[in-house]
Write a structure and sequence with these properties.
The structure is a single chain. The protein has 2 domains: about 170 residues, Jelly Rolls, CATH 2.60.120; about 110 residues, Sandwich (Jelly Rolls), CATH 2.60.120. The chain contains 6 helices and 20 strands. It has a 5-stranded mixed sheet. Strands 12-14-19-16-17 form a 5-stranded mixed sheet, with no helix packed on it. Strands 2-11-6-9 form a 4-stranded antiparallel sheet, with no helix packed on it. Bound molecules: calcium ion (3 copies). The site of one calcium ion has 8 residues, from β2. The site of one calcium ion (CA) has 8 residues, from β2.
């Protein structure tokens, strides 16, 4: 887990490193939400090292999420540009607000059968971000809004063409981070995520940047140039939840594994007589994955709160805050840091207490 190691090292630098990303949070929405994801990544990295001290960062980032909500209205105003997604000629915006590359494209609409390819370039270090500490010249960030049918399973894989840099991929619904990924495999120059497309109306933002640039913000040095080409391959398919059947007071159990980095498992249960179900995920392979209840009102799927995994533990979530009508409940199991493999074996236990 090279990436976890470097994130842990970043956290190990103390508050300065975290403050650096917080400053970036203030710079813009896209990067901000992404930083939340990276902090989630830090938590995971720390948890893997039995370090629980990073919890405070989560709280701070939640606050930033709230502050960002007011900026979402800018999306509509910024839409209207032409994106040449497949030709690699687009200069994707660095952010929604808080930088000098603020033209946000019309969302890429995923509604076809085959994969959609997006090409971009991390072109250099002349990008300006506006932070609390003044303007910061830093590396390129490419932000691509996209939409897909609600509840479809979207898979995104980003690779560095020619292996010139190590890409970082995160997605946000503009309120909170959905997924975060740095390594498809150890030392890989690709990142892969799956997500359930959540909203009927709002696009999801896919954010690509160089791992080195993220880690070195705000001081640098930064990588970039016309040879720093990235290619994203995006597919979507109908979600196919694993059906746990009818659940009441008697616990229903199921074993699973997050087989590959970025993989996401979707589960469905049906309430027997109402009540509020609890889902407990217990690590059987060493690391506890993330479990997230889904809001499923109005035919959409909205993520509940996300907490990252920890070593050898168990996590219980419920649907109390989601106000879902009807007997069906859905939840996701994945890893906040975008990892997967045997160490992410788990057992589910679902019951209505
Ligand atoms: Ca770019
Ligand atoms: Ca850009
Ligand atoms: Ca990597």
């Amino acid at each position: 887990m090279i990436f976890a190691g470097t994130l842990a090292a970043t956290v190990g630098c103390g508050d300065d490193a975290t403050n650096g990303t917080t400053a970036n949070n203030g710079a813009n929405n896209g990067v901000n939400n992404g930083n939340n994801g990276v902090n989630n990544g830090n938590n995971g990295a720390n948890n893997a090292l039995n370090n629980g001290a990073n919890n405070g960062n989560n709280g701070a980032n939640n606050g930033n999420n709230g502050a960002n909500n007011g900026n979402n209205g800018n999306n509509g105003a910024n839409n209207g540009g032409d994106a040449d997604y497949a030709e690699g000629e687009a200069d994707f915006p660095d952010c929604l607000t808080g930088c000098d590359h603020d033209d946000v494209f019309e969302p890429l609409v995923l509604n076809g059968d085959g994969p959609t390819t997006i090409l971009g370039v991390l072109d250099g270090d002349d990008h300006l971000f506006f932070t609390d500490g003044g303007n910061v010249q830093a590396g390129d960030v490419d932000l691509v809004p996209f939409s897909a049918p609600p509840q479809s399973l979207v898979t995104i894989r980003v690779e560095s063409v020619g292996g010139t840099f190590d890409p970082l991929l995160y997605t946000t619904d503009q309120f909170q981070i959905l997924t975060f990924a740095g390594d498809e495999s150890e030392d890989s120059l690709a990142a892969r995520s799956q997500l359930i497309f959540p909203y009927l109306g709002l696009p999801v933002l896919m954010v690509v940047e160089a791992t080195a640039n993220y880690e070195n913000f705000p001081g640098g040095p930064y990588v970039g140039g016309q040879d720093h080409v990235w290619r994203a391959t995006v597919t979507h398919e109908a979600w196919s939840p694993i059906d746990l059947g009818t659940v009441g007071a008697q616990a229903v159990t199921e074993d699973g594994t997050i087989d590959a980095p970025g993989d996401m498992k979707v589960y469905k249960l049906t309430l027997d007589g109402g009540g509020s179900p609890e889902v407990t995920v217990t690590a059987t392979g060493g690391l506890t994955p993330t479990v997230v209840p889904l809001r499923t009102n109005r035919g959409s799927a909205e993520y509940g709160s996300t907490e990252c995994g920890e070593e050898g533990g168990a996590r219980t979530v419920n649907f109390d805050a989601l106000e879902i009508e009807g007997p069906d409940r859905y939840f996701l199991v994945y890893d906040c840091n975008g990892y997967g493999g045997e160490e992410f074996g788990y057992q589910l236990s679902v019951r209505v207490p």
